[in-house]
Specification:
The chain is α/β, with parallel strands linked by helices. It has helices at about 15-20, 20-30, 45-55, 70-85, 95-110, 130-150, 160-170, 215-225, 250-255, 270-275, 290-295, 330-340, 340-360, 360-370; strands spanning about 5-10, 35-40, 55-60, 90-95, 115-120, 155, 180, 200-205, 230-235, 260-265, 280, 300-305, 320-325. Helix 4 crosses helix 5. The radius of gyration is 21 Å and the shape is globular.
Length: about 375
């Protein structure tokens, strides 16, 4: 019996192992021949070698993760359409905006029966005030989503708010079914519980974007350090190629003032999580934030926003605190409460681990996805 051919379309090489590695392994265990299509994956890179070690076939595609060049986007669509035919794909799944749109259209044009999309978040175009470039992007992406998603058999979402929004905006037609899954999940064995540090230490891991709440984190850190100078605020990430990116000058000022310790981009974030007592993500909107799940699995209390994708991870007052979006004072207050109640930090961290095991175990999440795709 011929194995079904599964094509996974991505926009960022790092995500293939970090976010989709267990899904790829689950597909292989389910009897699929797996191909991945992603731009900028060097043949001898660690990611490519690890994928090839799993007997996954890797394809480089001319897809720009950001940008609105119609010629380049058409080139990416044509390349994907050609690839779909060459490998005789039976299943195609894209995640993030361009892979969802162009992966779906390529699969539809190529006659692939099993077409799926995974909405992992809404991104720059959907967050913030719809003015200027953001408004143009939002209108364009909505039109492309509306056209492409109607060609899918099923669309996965990572939180109910995104699913509801897509339905309200008619980006997903009533005839197309959808399913909410618990984010990308987390490997609770790989992210194991570690002891809490003695001094209060906070951590944010994110691309350095305004929409991630990085500025609010730095401002709240300054307020709290004025009252509790022994408290530590660490930041992991990098300045992304995005209109909403933090400026290098801002980052340098935070570091120079002693407000924030910047650790840069880390290949393995577990040591950084282990060195913190509380994880913080003041994001404006997420799919389901993977970094929060990692921190929960390692037994950390979480402070995040009462925003789509974020609010699903925290039961307010149970495993952490929810604060309003862009509310620096509330964020600083939540931090202060945990500094003043170290016993609560430990109790909330234990609950985070329990929730991670029960709800966000990556193997449970992937089992749901494979069942819904009839694999």
């Amino acid at each position: 019996m011929t194995k079904p051919v599964f094509l996974l379309v991505a926009s960022f090489p790092d995500s293939l192992i970090k976010f989709r590695g267990p899904l790829i392994e689950a597909l292989i265990q389910a009897g699929c021949t797996v191909h991945v299509a992603v731009p900028g994956l060097e043949a001898e890179s660690d990611i490519a070698l690890r994928l090839m070690g799993l007997e996954v076939t890797v394809h480089d595609i001319p897809l720009e993760r950001t940008g609105l060049n119609p010629v380049k986007d058409l080139s990416a669509l044509l390349a994907l359409r050609k690839l779909v035919g060459q490998i005789r794909a039976d299943y195609v799944l894209g995640y993030t905006i361009k892979p969802v749109i162009y992966g779906t259209l390529a699969a539809w044009l190529g006659g692939v029966r099993h077409r799926f999309a995974l909405i992992t978040g809404l991104g720059y175009a959907f967050t913030g005030e719809a003015t200027g470039l953001r408004k143009v992007l939002r209108l364009l992406i909505q039109k492309l989503y509306r056209f492409s998603l109607s060609r899918n058999r099923l669309v996965f979402f990572q939180n109910p708010d995104d699913e509801s929004l897509f339905r309200q905006l008619n980006l997903l037609k009533p005839a197309i079914p959808s399913r909410v899954v618990n984010g990308s999940g987390v490997d609770v064995a790989e992210y194991s519980v570690s002891p809490l540090p003695e001094a209060p230490a906070f951590l944010l891991i994110a691309r350095l974007l305004g929409d991630k709440g990085v500025r609010e984190y730095a401002q709240a850190a300054a307020l709290v350090k004025a009252q509790y100078p022994e408290s530590v605020f660490r930041l992991v990430g990098w300045i992304d190629d995005n209109p909403d990116a933090i400026r290098q000058q801002e980052l340098d000022e935070w570091v120079a003032s002693g407000t924030v310790e910047f650790l840069g981009k880390l290949a393995d974030v577990r040591p950084a999580i282990a060195s913190c007592s509380v994880y913080v993500l003041p994001s404006y909107r997420e799919g389901t934030p993977r970094t929060v799940l990692e921190a929960m699995a390692m037994g950390r209390a979480v402070i995040t926003t009462d925003a789509p994708g974020c609010r699903e991870t925290v039961l307010d007052g149970d495993n952490g605190y929810l604060v309003p979006v862009q509310d620096v004072a509330s964020l600083a207050n939540a931090m202060t409460k945990l500094i003043e109640s170290p016993d609560r930090v430990a109790t909330m961290g234990a609950r985070s681990r329990q929730i991670a095991e029960e709800k966000y175990d990556v193997h449970k999440v992937n089992a749901v996805m494979l069942k819904e795709m009839a694999l």
